[in-house]
Write a structure and sequence with these properties.
- The protein is an alpha/beta fold.
- The protein has two domains: 214 residues, Glycogen Phosphorylase B (Rossmann fold); 150 residues, Glycogen Phosphorylase B (Rossmann fold).
- It is built from 15 helices and 15 strands.
- It has a seven-stranded parallel β-sheet, with helices on both faces.
- Helix 12 links the parallel strand 13 and strand 14.
Length: 411
């Protein structure tokens, strides 16, 4: 086999690398691409969790024990400061970086600098096109009469939208973790060649199936895990659950933090004796091993990590098309159109009544779960980098000349 040159990546993330949510995603990406063979310079706002020794780390918003307060500075100003610092670093590193991997809102000056220097860039899209996300969530909130709290990440924000749409145009590739995300960009006129499909993953050391046989006599155990907010579609799941005969014998577990007004709106449904509200939980893999089905009827999503973790834990996916879940309908999960309560209720009923179908979907899901780990995601992401480099510099070879980045100074 022909030797593939080592790719040198500057990975820019304005928040806490290794924290929850996208901090968790970005941490696994850094580990994954390093494990796949990339030379990585990670520039997070703050390093929250250690990375492999092969990764060079230069935080932008912390130095030793000193940290910039995101809360006091303000989220957007903190992102802008991080972006300015990374852009200045990139000027000094122009001959040592092949690809710059950026995240939304902290990428504008970095992308401009990389474009001027001729360095390839990718921009992570952890959600759909932001205009689509704002609009569809706002419509559903208005339909339900549940306003989002001021400053919520999915509340319409023209300043955020304007900045992100400029970032979209500057990036060589937009990294889309699901076909649903990709389609929201195609629908807004983005060329297909600017959109790259990659994926997220799960940690197989934490998410693994229970070896015990499932009893076909017990009631169906349905699990919802995540933020209990309008865009996740929990209201659809509750309505469908109570329309299905599965609720007579089964249990619907809800693990996650509720937005207060949403909880008040759903209180009659949440009060049903078959529904158990567990609050925020840190033992999701164990809950998944105890459950038959993970339900996620989102109206907008990037590619929900809980769907990967559920598959790794032996939980069958029952999701909307907007969830960006790594599954195929009737092959290793069941998929419905966003907001289609009737079909969702039918799917719950089928799994309740046909335990052979449930077992078949579970077995098929587990059979290919090794294809959606974080290690597999790292290899795919490295392939995307190579594809971007080949398109931008078809005659060049990318082989790092040294074993470490030269990153002197305090910028």
């Amino acid at each position: 086999m022909r030797h593939q040159p080592q790719i040198r990546v500057l990975y820019s993330f304005a928040l806490k690398l290794g924290d929850e949510r996208i901090g968790h995603t970005s941490w696994h990406q850094v580990n994954g691409i390093a494990g796949a063979g990339a030379m990585v310079l990670a520039c997070p706002g703050v390093l929250h969790r250690a990375v492999p020794a092969s990764v060079t780390v230069r935080p932008t918003l912390s130095w030793k024990k000193l940290r910039v307060s995101y809360k006091l500075l303000g989220r957007l100003r903190a992102y802008a400061l991080h972006d300015w610092i990374v852009a200045r670093r990139l000027e000094k590193l122009k001959d040592q970086v092949d690809v710059v991997h950026t995240w939304p809102l902290g990428a504008l000056e970095t992308l401009r600098t990389a474009r001027r220097l001729g360095i390839a860039t990718v921009l992570e899209r952890p959600n759909t096109h932001t205009r689509f996300a704002f609009e569809i969530v706002q419509r559903e909130c208005e339909r339900l009469g549940v306003p989002l709290p001021p400053g919520h990440e999915h509340a319409y924000n023209p300043a955020v939208l304007e900045r992100e749409e400029v970032e979209y145009r500057l990036a060589d590739r937009l990294l889309c973790p699901s076909d649903f995300v990709l389609q929201t960009f195609l629908d807004r006129g983005f060329p297909r060649e600017q959109l790259a499909r990659h994926s997220y993953g799960y940690d197989e050391s934490l998410c693994f199936p229970d070896g015990n046989a499932r009893s076909s006599n017990r009631g169906l155990v349905l699990l919802f895990a995540g933020e209990c907010a309008v865009r996740k579609g929990l209201h659809f799941a509750l309505e469908a659950w109570l329309k299905s005969p599965a609720h007579h014998e089964g249990t619907f577990l809800i693990a996650g933090h509720f937005l207060p007004q949403y909880a008040r709106k759903l209180s009659p449904l949440l009060a049903h004796p078959s529904v158990r509200v567990l609050g925020h939980r840190k033992d999701l893999p164990q809950l998944m091993r105890q459950s038959d089905v993970l339900v996620l009827p989102s109206i907008e999503e990037g590619s929900a990590l809980v769907t990967y973790e559920a598959r790794g834990s032996g939980c069958v996916l029952l999701v909307s098309e907007a969830a960006g879940a790594p599954c195929r309908h009737m092959e290793n999960g069941l998929v419905h159109a966003p907001g289609d309560v009737a079909t969702l209720a039918e799917h719950i009923t089928r799994l309740h009544e046909d335990r052979t179908l449930l077992a078949r979907l579970r077995a098929a899901s587990l059979n290919t779960a090794n294809e959606i780990t974080w290690m597999a995601a790292g290899r795919r992401l490295l392939d995307v980098y190579r594809e971007v480099l080949a398109a931008k510099h078809p005659q060049a070879r990318y082989l790092a000349e040294s074993s470490a980045f030269s990153v002197g100074g305090r910028i």
